Amino acid sequence: MELVTQQGMSRYSAPWWWRLVATALSFTIFGIGGVLLRVLVFPLLALLPGDALAHRTRARTVVSLSFRWFVEFMFRSGVLTYEVEGAERLGRPGQVVIANHPSLIDVVVLVAFIRDANCVVKQSLWDNPCMRGPIRAAGYISNSGSMDMLDEAAAALQSGETLIIFPEGTRTTPGQPPQFHRGAAAIALRGARVVTPVVISVTPTTLTKAEPWYSIPSRRFHFRLRVGQDIDPLHFSALGPAPVASRKLNEHLHQHFMKELAEDERSAA
């Protein structure tokens, strides 16, 4: 299994005031970068020859590379260290990537390591001035909760795209177990060739749903992303009608994440 890691200077943590400045600078660059992509980069890419698929692929590549640069900047500036286990198994045709959602940058790190991924994103981000350009150019799917969204996501998988879904729908509330909605399981059963769970842990916790970005932890945080074993959706499809199958797959995923996250907590203790 391939291990991508950036833990240099792991015994050294920059002073709190520097990490606060570096975090502010990181998100400022992220916001400005999103606007520049929308008003400069994507219009130029649209002038290049090719069909809609070629334009979308270019846009997703640019987004992925930009997010990878952002993660590297946060590492180089002393905000975080990171570790990705099994990155080589991400990005396969028809693969649905199911991940928990402990922090603000989860989708950024995942997309950074999947060059041509689709993603189900919150509806509110479609009108965000910093994010709407990359989201629309990359053809991401709005998490509206409608049947049209389920159909669009399933169709993306059936056409061979890789799809990232956070079944919680929002960041995990600190101190509480993740709560998975069944929509992700229903999408997987309708269109995925393979389901791949990805466990994300952030130590110490930061950028959570209950914390503003400037609530800096006592030391720079470590972001760990672990790609789990593949799950065959056909195994669950054979267990009964669609509602029963999606409930059982959702329960299986929830139990998997609870077990892995509990092991992470014991390791960090």
Description:
The chain is of the alpha/beta class and 269 residues long. The chain has one domain (3-268): Glycerol-3-phosphate (1)-acyltransferase, CATH 3.40.1130. It contains eight helices and eight strands. Strands 1-2-8-7-3-6-4-5 form an eight-stranded mixed beta sheet, with helices on both faces. Strand 4 (117-122), helix 4 (132-138) and strand 5 form a beta-alpha-beta unit. Helix 5 (147-158) runs parallel beside helix 6 (183-191). The two termini are 26 Å apart.
Write the layout of secondary structure elements.
Blueprint: E1 3-6, H1 16-46, H2 52-76, E2 80-85, E3 95-99, H3 106-112, E4 117-122, H4 132-138, E5 141-143, H5 147-158, E6 162-165, H6 183-191, E7 194-203, E8 221-227, H7 233-237, H8 242-268
